[in-house]
Design brief:
The chain is mainly beta. Helix content is 4%, strand content 61%. It starts with a strand and ends with a strand.
């Protein structure tokens, strides 16, 4: 019998852990001045009428708590009217120099350009008088969500043999967060190419999870073989609110039990009787491709184990006739080193 086992690799464990660095993600809320006007005046009289018009940009998705604030030189008796995109939001006399900020309702706002118009009511029966408000420090502000730090990506490497021996995998992590403030957490792993109806293709992320995990509790989610790739893999964490410290991240890959090749050889009855009578020997020889490094392992013949350790180019041993059987016999080689390269496994009568 002569066979070429090739490269045999030692499987130290069926579980492989890929530890991934901690990731911190958060969204911040900052008060931003959307528009400021140093001073302006609104007037309503018999011979003159002047309104104040202010434009500003708004984004209802990233902004909240929109406010209009201003000061006046002197309190007045006439009503000051304020329209937001044509809808009345304020109409009253300004009795104090620094009135309370006026909320700008989200329902009245637009994404993009918005318009504020300040006007003054008429003077009534005193037609010879004019109502005038001198406004200073006019400001439109909003609390704007800063999502620049809401996404974090980490990478890890998968070897080709891990994919070949893949049985299952889990992504594990502990989300440290404040349950009252934490928003939705989304986890992506790599991406996949999807073909559209018009025959074009696009890259779509593999969503492993989207939801609200328990803060401080180990979280596990399954990973399919198709979602992993040989070489660099990228896992992405994204928060839609609050802060998360994603700790103790690791991908646990479970592999199939390593099965080393088993070879069969037939021992004719006449040859078996000859060996049993001590009139010959059956010898096993392994020839290696590496003659410099130490090679260790075991040869399993019909279930009987013989260990070997050598730094030579080849290893030989005489097979005990007592473990042989007439007819079919089996032999297997299992490595004890990380890698064992066998050019030839031969059994011969000597």
């Amino acid at each position: 019998m002569s066979e070429t086992p090739g490269t045999l690799r030692l499987q130290k464990s069926t579980l492989l852990d890929h530890n991934i660095p901690t990731a911190t993600i958060y969204t911040a809320i900052n008060t931003v001045e959307l528009k400021t006007i140093e001073s302006a005046s609104a007037k309503n009289g018999v011979f003159a009428k002047r309104d104040i018009t202010i434009d500003f940009e708004g984004d209802r998705e990233s902004g909240r708590n929109f406010l209009l604030s201003f000061n006046v030189d002197q309190p007045g008796d006439g009503p000051l009217r304020v329209l937001l995109n044509g809808r009345l939001i304020y109409e009253r006399p300004v009795r104090e120099r620094s009135p309370a900020p006026i909320p700008l309702a989200l329902d009245y706002l637009k994404d993009g350009k918005n318009e504020l118009v300040f006007s003054v009511g008429d003077a009534g029966w005193s037609f010879w008088r004019s109502n005038t408000y001198y406004l200073h420090n006019i400001m439109v502000s909003a609390d704007v969500i800063d999502a620049s730090a809401s996404i974090a990506a980490q990478t890890f490497t998968i070897k080709e043999e891990e994919i070949g021996m893949f049985e299952s995998a889990q992504l594990q992590f502990v989300p440290e967060c404040d349950i009252k403030k934490a928003g939705r957490l989304v986890v992506h792993l790599n991406s996949q190419t999807v073909r559209n109806a018009d025959n074009t293709t696009q890259e779509v992320p593999n969503v492993l999870y989207s939801g609200f995990p328990d803060c401080g509790v180990l979280f596990k989610t399954d990973v399919a073989r198709e979602q992993l790739r040989v070489g660099e893999n990228r896992v992405l964490f994204a928060s839609q609110g609050g802060q998360y410290v994603i700790d103790r991240i690791k991908l646990v890959v479970r592999q199939r039990e390593q099965e080393y090749p088993t070879y069969y050889f037939n021992l004719p009855r006449e040859m078996y009787d000859t060996l049993d009578a001590g009139q010959g020997q059956l010898r096993v020889t392994m020839t290696f491709t590496d003659y410099r490094n130490q090679k260790t392992g075991e040869v399993v013949l019909n279930g009987f184990v013989q260990s070997f350790a050598t730094g030579d180019y080849a290893w030989q041993a005489v097979i005990d006739p007592g473990i042989l059987t007439p007819g079919p016999n089996t032999i297997m080689v299992a490595p004890h080193t990380d890698r064992l390269d066998i050019a030839e496994l031969k059994i011969e009568l000597v």
